[in-house]
């Protein structure tokens, strides 16, 4: 079995996602993002991480950064998205604008609306 056939171990991916790999002269070991130093067990576990697990952790963090960027821009993006539909209407309300939308438009509308109305989700390993 090649390394690409191996599935990442979720507990190790979660540990890597929570790791701050910057050198800390005060503890001389890695630490969690909140500053707690890794325990001996956590260090031992981190040293068993494979390339696939490092890649998975990196991809999850990248997906979260993209989610956060989209969430931060959602309000303005939602207004820009709705503007052309509202311009076509004499009675400007959301229900009428939705009636003008294609299936793909409604999918984008739902995505943007979800970002606008739901609170920001914190990063959670193996979720993004």
How would you sum up this structure, described in words?
This protein is mainly alpha-helical. The protein has five helices and two strands, in the order αββαααα. The protein has helices at 10-17, 40-47, 51-87, 94-99, 103-117, and strands at residues 19-20, 31-32. It has a two-stranded antiparallel sheet with strand order 1-2. The longest helix is centred in the middle third of the chain and has 37 residues, at 51-87. It is elongated and about 65 Å long. It starts with 9 loop residues before the first helix and ends in an 11-residue tail after the last helix. The mean pLDDT is 91.
Tell me the major beta sheet.
2 strands, antiparallel
The number of distinct β-strands equals 2
Roughly how many Å is the radius of gyration?
Answer: 22 Å
Strand order of the largest sheet: 1-2
* Protein structure class: mainly alpha
Indicate the low-confidence ranges by residue numbers: none
Taken in chain order, the helices and strands follow as HEEHHHH
The percent range for helix content is 55-70%
C-alpha geometry: elongated
Q: Please, how many helices? A: 5
On the 0 to 100 scale, the average pLDDT is: 91
Task: Classify the beta-strand content into a percent band.
Answer: under 5%
Give the terminus-to-terminus CA distance.
27 Å
């Amino acid at each position: 079995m090649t390394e690409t056939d191996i599935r990442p171990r979720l507990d190790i991916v979660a540990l890597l996602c929570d790791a701050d790999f910057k050198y800390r002269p005060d503890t001389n070991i890695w630490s969690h993002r909140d500053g707690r130093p890794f325990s001996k067990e956590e260090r031992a576990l981190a040293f068993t991480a494979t390339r696939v697990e490092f890649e998975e952790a990196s991809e999850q963090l990248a997906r979260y950064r993209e989610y956060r960027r989209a969430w931060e821009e959602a309000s303005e993006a939602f207004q820009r998205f709705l503007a052309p539909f509202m311009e076509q209407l004499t009675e400007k309300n959301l229900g009428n604008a939705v009636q003008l939308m294609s299936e793909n438009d409604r999918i984008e509308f739902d995505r943007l609306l979800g970002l606008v109305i739901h609170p920001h989700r914190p990063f959670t390993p193996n979720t993004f």
